Amino acid sequence: MIKRNATGYLGVIISLIVFLAIFLSMQYLDADIAIRIFSILQSFRGLHKATENIPDFLPYIVITGSILMWVIYFYRLHKKKFGSKTQFLMLAATALPSAYLLKMFFQFVFGRTGTRQWLTVKSPLVFNWFNNLANGSFPSGHMTVFSAFGTAVLIYFPRYRKQILILLTILGAALILTDYHFISDVIAGTYLGVITTYFLWVIIYKRRVKL
Questions:
Q1: For residue 38, what are the contacts with CB-CB under 8 A and spacing of at least 6?
Q2: Where in the chain are the domains?
Q3: 194: Cβ contacts below 8 Å, ≥ 6 apart
C-alpha cells in the first residue's frame, strides 16, 4: 500500500512538472525559437527546401508495426512462448494504435495552430478548441507514438534505456529544428506516449497478476 501510494504521488509530481514545463514553453519559448529556426532555414535555401514538405509516414508506421507485432505475438503464443518478449509484443502492439488515436483526439480538442502554418501562412497562434484536426500540432504525434513504443521497450528491456533516450531526444530535436513542432508540442507528445503505455501495462499485466 505504501509503495503504491508513493508511486502515485511521484506520478502526480512528475505530471505537475510536465504541465509547468508545457505552460512555460508556450509562454516564453515556442514562438521565439520557432521564428529563429525558421529564419535560419530560410537562409539556407537547400535546407529549407529539404524540410519544407517531408511526407508523413506515421499512420503507415503505426498500422504496419502493429500488425507485424500482433502476428509475431500470436506466433509465439502458438509456440507456447509466454516470456517477457511475448508480453512486450502485446503491450507495444496495443500502445502504438492507442497512442496514435489519442494524439488525434487531443489534436482535435486543442486545435493548436501548426508551426509551419503559423510561420508561412501567418495564421494566428491560437487554440481552436474542437477544431483544426488536419493541422493541429499539439501534442506531437511522432513523439506520442515513438515515446509509447520506447516506454514499452524500457519496461521489458531496461538495458536499452540509454539508446531509447538518445533516439527520442534526437527525434524531438529534429521536430523542433525543422519547425514542424513547437517545444511544448514535443513535451506534451512525450508525456502522452509515456503515460499511454504505462497505463496499458498496469491494466493488462498488473491486474492479470492479481488474478
A1: 119, 179
A2: 30-210
A3: 147, 148, 151
